[in-house]
Each structure stands twice: as structure tokens, then as C-alpha cells.
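help with this.
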Amino acid sequence: MKLFSRFMALSLALTALFSIPTDAQSFSASGPIRSIEDQVRKNILMLPRYEVFDAIGFQVDGDTVTLTGKVRNAVNRKDAERSIKKIAGVGRVVNEIEVLPLGGFDESIRVRLYQTLAQSGGLSRYLWTTNPSVRLIVDRGHVTLVGFVSGRGDYNTMNVLAHGVSGVFSVTNDLVVDKDRLR
């Protein structure tokens, strides 16, 4: 009899579980837009060639997603758009991602910039190959630091070190200190 009552309880629980709507948008605190934003963010981070030298941003307006940013590899531009088009609820994708120009000059700056930052104190933790929190954009000798760091000291150190890399014409520091990011 105990076995039968356990079986019935399990059956009722499974029936209740499968009768809950599986539409992820219905569980979102801010509605469908928030769910689309989460899926877009996830799809961008899951791009196989998305690395520390690429920065893709986005904006959701109804069922339209606008992609922005700069990438070193043209494949990332196409893959991002293709990936976002597959998301349920996305009707249109406007792809404004810029492909950075090819060239040895920028590539040598990327290598020196990465090495300089990675070899300085604890800054390497921001440059991990999988989903780095800091992105290094080099465009015709101009560097933009994008992402977030945990403290003002790391923010300042990255800025000073980037300015000191040979061949860099200018540095735009768009880093956000983690505690300020939540405001």
C-alpha cells in the first residue's frame, strides 16, 4: 500500500510539472523583452570565435534587435546575426557590427597590448579566453577598453598600461568598475 501511495504522489507531481507552461517568456520578471535580451546575450557569448578582441553590443526594441560593436573576424558578424534571428520572438535583426580592418599594424598592437595587460599583476583574470570581462578593441592604432573590472585600481592600471603600448595612438577607456555597474 505504501508503494502504491508513493507511486500516486509521484504521478501527481509529474502531471503537475508537465502541465506548467514551458514558454520561457512567461516566467520573465520583465516580460518578453527581458527574455529576448537574456537569450541574445547568451547567444553572443556562445559564438565559437568570439574573443577578447571583439565587442558586440545589442539593443532590443519590441521584436527588433540591433547589433552594434566591432569584431576582428567577419565570421563573428555573420554568426551573431544568424544566431539572433533564430531566437523566438525576434522578428528583425539590424546588424550594425563593424568588421575591423585587417593588417599587421593593428595585429601587432593587439599582441603587445594583450601581453602587457596579461603580464601585469592580477589583470590577466580579466582577459580569459572564454568570456573575458574586458575586451580589447584595436582600430587603426586606436585602442578601446570595453567591459568591467572589480576596482578603480585595475581600471587605472589598464588605462595607463594601454597608453604605454608601442604604436598606440589613443586609448578610450570604456571600462566600468564592477560596483558602479549595478547602479
User: Anything to note?
Assistant: Residues 142 and 170 are 5 Å apart (CA to CA). The chain has a mean pLDDT of 84. The chain has two domains: 24-99, 104-181.
